[in-house]
Amino acid sequence: MKPISVLLVCAGVSLVPSTGSAQTVQGVVREVVTNRRLSDVIVSLTTTLGDSVAAFRTDDSGGFAVVAPRPGQFFVSARRIGYDVMVDGPVRLADGQIITVVLHIKRIGTELDPVTVTAEAEVPHLRRVGFYQRKATGLGFFIDREYIEERFAAREIADLLRAVPGVTIQRVTAGRARVQITGCPNTRVLVDNLEMGSDWQEGLGPGDIEGIEVFRRITEIPVQYAGPRSGCGVILIWTRLGRNRDS
């Protein structure tokens, strides 16, 4: 079968911002026929055993930077509605190596059946902080205002996180609970991008929250929040007060 994708390793070419010292596959996605850069393409890294370990949604210029959690061999895939799925590789990533590639995907030639799409209303503040872009990768657990308002009986943030798989809630005293990623006693918590201590729930309630992101393992943690301090899990909390600061 004639291949429909092209994978190019381009020495010395930087197509997206540098990701630091982590082992990374970066580059752009283009359409085969027109060579046009494509946004909203999910680029993923998959192990040779078929396990997906990282993903990134291309930006408006078609750029992406997918950070592998460890060195090794990975297949690179690109998918977008209306296009054939592209899978190429494997590529070998050494520790700290950055590989720059150009991925080409082909529009599906057959006509698609009409579909009805229900769009999710985006909160401008959450869009600015990258909440929706990270949600689109399929990594992590995300809580928005709709989810919060459906849980009208929740009296504290711990009540919102109680149903999240991989999160442990421990009652410390009446009216106070300890929240952590299961098996991760030093879970990192950031509120409006500020590093918080163990008392991060003080003065915060469900009504103050715009959105929550929970990343329960190293392979889920976004590159901008990864590093030694992140350990094995990260919880990001975005408040409505933070939204007001943006306006």
Give the strand order of the largest sheet, numbering strands 1, 2, ... along the chain. Answer: 9-14-15-12-13
Please state the average pLDDT score. Answer: 83
Total helices: the number is 5
The CATH superfamily of the largest domain is known as: TonB-dependent receptor, plug domain
Top keywords for this entry?
single chain, 247 residues, mainly beta, Immunoglobulin-like, five-stranded mixed sheet, 5 helices
Structural account:
This protein is mainly beta and 247 residues long. It folds into 2 domains: 7-105, Sandwich (Immunoglobulin-like), CATH 2.60.40.10; 124-246, Ferric Hydroxamate Uptake Protein, Chain A, domain 1 (Beta Complex). Helix content is 12%, strand content 35%. It is built from 5 helices and 15 strands. It has helices spanning 124-128, 131-136, 145-150, 157-161, 240-246, and strands at 7-9, 24-31, 42-47, 52-57, 63-67, 72-79, 86-93, 98-105, 141-143, 167-173, 176-181, 188-191, 194-195, 209-215, 234-239. The strands form 4 sheets. Strands 9-14-15-12-13 form a 5-stranded mixed β-sheet. The radius of gyration is 20 Å and the shape is globular.
Nutshell version of this structure?
The chain is mostly beta strands and 247 residues long.
